[in-house]
Amino acid sequence: MTAMTDAARRLEVEIKVPARDLGAVRNKLRDEGARPLAPAHFESNDLFDRGGGSTLTFKGLARFEAGIKTREERETAVSDPEEMERILAALGLERRFRYEKRREEWELESCVIALDETPIGDFAEVEGEPPAIRRVLQRLGLDFSQAILDSYAEIYQRRRRHEPSLPKDMVFRNR
Which domain covers residue 113, as residue numbers? Predict the structure, then answer.
C-alpha cells in the first residue's frame, strides 16, 4: 500500500459489494494487473463490545460520505489470544458475536481488495481513498449502487430476524 500519514492509517475507508462470482472478480483482478497481498485464508472474528481475535481491533462509529463508509480503525497484534480474552472479560466485556470468512487480498490502484466468502454469501471489499475505490469498482465491473454499508455482524443480525433458525453466530456449518 502507498505511504499514508499516521492519522490516515487509522481510518478505514471502504465499500462492500455482493459478488456473485468471486472467481470472475479474481480473474479480473489478474487481468487488471492487481498484486496479490494475502492468499486465501480462514478468519474467525470474535466481536466483544470493542474487540477480539489474535489481532485486537477497535472500529469506531461509521459515517457515510458519498456512499463510502469511513470510520476510525486501530489494530495491534496479540501474542496470547486467551489472555487477551481474559483481560477483556475482566474489563466487563463479553463476546457477543462470532463470524467466519475465507478471505484473500489484492492491491490495485493503492486500494486493498478483499474477496470474502462468508456463510451468507460472497463479497468484495475495496478499501482506499474514495476516488480510487470508485475507479477500482469500475475496473472490476462491480456495481457501486449495490454497495452495502453495514458490517457483516449487522448484515447477519438483520438476516436472522427474517430467518430465526439461523445460528446465533455467522459460522460455516461444516466447522
Answer: 6-44+97-162
- For 133-141, which contacts have Cβ atoms below 8 Å and span 24 or more sequence positions? 133/13, 133/14, 133/15, 133/68, 135/109, 136/108, 136/109, 136/111, 137/15, 137/17, 139/28, 139/32, 139/108, 139/109, 140/25, 140/28, 140/29, 140/32, 140/108, 140/113, 141/28
Under DSSP, the state recorded for 172 is -
Cβ atoms 74, 57 nearer than 8 A = yes
Model-wide pTM > 0.85: no
Cα–Cα distance measured from residue 131 to residue 107, given in angstroms and rounded to the nearest whole number: 15
Q: What is the pLDDT of residues 135-156, one digit of tens each?
A: 999 999 999 999 998 889 899 9
What is the domain-level CATH number for residue 11? 2.40.320.10
In a domain, 70, yes or no: no
Average pLDDT of the chain is 86
Residue range 61-74, pLDDT digits in tens: 777 777 788 878 78
Domains: count for the chain? 1
Average pLDDT over residues 109-133: 95
One-letter amino acid of 81: P
Query: What sign for the dihedral angle of Cα 70, 72, 78, 80?
Result: negative
